[in-house]
Specification:
Number of strands: 6
Number of helices: 5
Shape: extended
Order of helices and strands: HHHEEEEHEEH
Radius of gyration: 22 Å
Strand order of the largest sheet: 1-2
């Protein structure tokens, strides 16, 4: 999952090392990097659209202006990571002179590395949250109790089947009319996505 969120190979290997250390599992040095390499190659081979979409999004980033879009629920989004204007301040702490560097304002220029690495996850999260908002509004209209945690939708058992129907209806409606930042790369027909486990 972190691949699609612009995580670097180094960052992915660090996550593996950290998890293995937490679980007290000994692993040969260099093994996490090999796992990451194999996983990335497999993703790029099997899910060709993920790297293509990330590349499309990252190509939109410039140093002059943040990338802006409107989510399918109508919320304006701005992928803004401006460079700070800093100023050094001299002050005293007890009997010692201390120099601190403070951010006092923001420049118009964007931090390209941060803006590029953040645009894919920010875009995906804006779509996920738009779906959540649309589903929540429909559940409210129908009097269906709904509890959400991130992208998990929960209700009481008598409403579960209707919630699944609402999820599919809102997902289809949302993507049918939405022109996002990226060109569609596949031929998935959301009307063909059916079945008990489409959302489970």
């Amino acid at each position: 999952m972190t691949f699609c969120y612009s995580s670097t190979p180094w960052g992915q290997a660090s996550q593996i090392y950290k998890k293995l250390r937490e679980d007290r599992i000994n692993i040969p040095r260099g093994a996490p990097q090999e796992i990451v390499t194999l996983a990335r190659e497999t993703i790029e081979e099997q899910i060709k659209s993920a790297p293509a979409i990330m590349a499309q999004l990252q190509a939109l980033v410039t140093k002059d202006e943040p990338v802006r879009w409107v989510s399918p629920s109508g919320l304006p989004i701005c992928n803004s990571y401006p460079k700070p204007r800093v100023r050094a301040v001299q002050h005293y702490l007890h009997d010692r002179s201390v120099r601190c560097v403070l951010s006092v304002d923001w420049k118009r220029e964007q931090r390209l590395d941060k803006a590029r690495s953040s645009i894919a996850p920010n875009y995906i999260h804006s779509l996920d949250s738009a779906l959540m908002a649309l589903v929540a509004c429909q559940c409210e209209r129908e009097g269906i109790p709904l509890i959400t945690i991130h992208d998990s939708f929960n209700t009481l058992p008598p409403y579960a089947d209707r919630l699944r129907e609402i999820l599919m209806e809102e997902l289809r409606k949302m993507y049918a009319g939405y022109e996002g930042l990226v060109r569609p790369t596949g031929n998935l027909d959301l009307n063909e996505v059916r079945g008990t486990y489409a959302f489970s």
